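Worked example 2:
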Amino acid sequence: MAIFSKAIPKVLRRSVEAKDTLRAQPFFDRIRAIGHQPFIQIGIQSISKTDFLICSTQEELVEFADALWILPQRAKSPFLSGMHAALSLEFYDAGELFFKWCLNGDEGISVGIFSFWNKAHPLRLPLEFPIFAIFDPPRATQVSTPSKRAAALTQMLTMYHETTGNDVARWSLIEGLALGLSKFHGSLEEYATAHRYVEVALRYSPKSIHLRAAQHALDLKLAGKDVPDRLVKFIGADNGALIGRVCPEPFKRFDIGPSGETLVCCGHWVPTPIGNIMTQEVEDVLNSPAARKIRASVLDGSYKYCNHLECSALIQGYLPKKETVTEPVLRRAIDHGKLNVDKVEQMLFAFDQSCNLSCPSCRVKTIIEKPAIRDVKTEVVTKKLMPLLSGIKLLDINPAGEVFASKPSRRILEMVNREKCPDLCIDIISNGTLFTEKEWQNLPNLRGMVRAVRISTDGATKATFEKLRRLASWEVFLKNMRFLAGLRARGGIKQLKMSFTYQIDNFREMKQFVEFGKSLNVDFVIFERLQNLGAYTWEEFRAKAVHLSAHPLHAEFLETIRDPIFGQAAVWHDFEWEGAARLSESEAVARLNATQSIT
């Protein structure tokens, strides 16, 4: 409490509206009748009466949100719509709407945010939460400006930050408010103020893709550096940077996560699930409301469910321009807004976290799923996913664990063949330690079907490899890599890739890793920044993540990635820092198209 209190001017702790705009007694009477202050208390004050919309605790949140949505005044108030969006976990929309409210206020009504915290009042109860009043019609005496409305949001954020309980709803409101305040203060070039609010919200929502994008953009501004176009909207008005681009992934992908959650892209980049294959039928998931929302967001240019900070397609700029799209499903979506799809082209199978290793960046211990869970998942593969695979063009398997340690993954690899899946190509993702010649010989049905093998390595030396691939043997790994290199040379697979997640323990081997890949005749080496998948506390993550600007070794990391070796077509990466060696946008697009055309 004390840390944030010092950061907020005392004036913002007072009610930001004139006292004569609020008839407070009806609020006090209702609180007295309830016996405690509701978490959210909205009073609709007309000339003669006050009606209430109340959420006493977050257990009433769903019912409250439904009532708020149909409230006639909600459509006239970006603030009320922003509150509904935040409580519905639509944080991008919440930030946009709170920002809009700061700039323009309401239409035909007015909303006031009031505090009786540490003020005299007739109740023998603490009043720790803000009180919300809708004035319909607005009061003639009421004067409001963008700065006063932003101060009201700050007051609201402060009060929810300095209370406890109702955590889900409270944290959701804090995230939406911080995004709105980041945009407002960022638009005024008040970057330190915006940064302060974002930092507070990140205490509650450390994985928020939008807060982290705002934080990074503000860090750049405070350091006097340019902000990438795609991130500008997190610290000001939307500049339309993505309106002319479209991402095809939500129209063609069907990714299965460890708990059956289904996504339309990599979970790091679009973490919002569209359904769950364990509890729903494929047809119900494919065009679910969430799926349609995500598809709409890549058409309207908001990309509001996407990780703007870390998506490599956004970083490298290789999303296709809308006018260049010829693929029929995507073209129809662009021209006519068609959001349903009849089938998907690509499945990423991350259904099982079982792995023979316990890499520190991924997990704190070895994970082998229990037989009962494993058997249920295997049954889902047989009954639900195999029919889907018959019409799919690409299967990625298994980024969540090790493909050769997973029974559900093995079931798929054993069941597919060219007769059942005539158009299917397979990309296998493995740590390489179990990918032996014997395993390959046991899967003769895969001949001619494997497009690529990607080996996740993270080291170019024995010491680093065995530190970051806990329980692995460097010598066993090298033996298997030589087998795979030979398999690639003989045409048994069409691509061989190696990937490297850079962090404090290995970034000094990045150049050596490129040479290591060349020695094995791999087609590509891939560099990706460290993600916090839950294996680290956020303090541990920040200590590891040299790509973060505040890291003490960040300058050394930047010097490393300026080497021209990283500008080769055979090197894929997500570097966006000034001076980093990289392909031009046209070169990156050409490389992507050439890679995807391999079947």
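The longest strand covers residues 495-502. The first helix runs from residue 2 to 7.
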